[in-house]
Amino acid sequence: MSAAEILGMASPGPFALRPVVGPDVPVLAALHALSFADGLGGEVWSAAAIERILDLPTSFGILATEPVEPAGAPVPLGFALGRRAVDEAEVLTLGVVPTARRRGLARALLAALMAQAAAGDARRLYLEVAEDNRAALALYAQAGLSEVGRRPGYYRRAGARADALVLACDLIAPDILSD
Prior knowledge:
Strand order of the largest sheet: 1-2-3-4-5-7-6
Low-confidence stretches: 1-12, 174-179
CATH topology: Aminopeptidase
Distance between the termini: 15 Å
Shape: globular
Number of domains: 1
Mean pLDDT: 83
CATH class: Alpha Beta
Number of strands: 7
């Protein structure tokens, strides 16, 4: 996947993206709960779980907010968390609140996370997604991810289970991103 393809996935929209920082943890936990209330993303993560992830030196994340004029606080809309291991990266979670969907936010978050992973020397990106999460599957296919594995019964839902599909794609060299 080329730099233009990765960066071109991000649609301009009335939102801003910025790196996640420690004080964002309670907001990220609330966003996770709102984003996955439908159960398609598995269990909702607590603030403590998110904090443990962000405490790892290989973790990184992006927060999407809606700007508010002029002195108001930005409204959080979605986020993505990832981590790197040697030359690979993994999308740990990506969520957008239901009221902000269909605006290109998930695409922008994924593109930013992919660019950040590539800038950190990752050459390949992995993620897991529930086999019945059609919206996420369409997004990931558009981004060039394809199925490389399956975890049977990985997601538990109200008496049922759903398989997790393991998806992956190659990332570009970080020096190409700066061109």
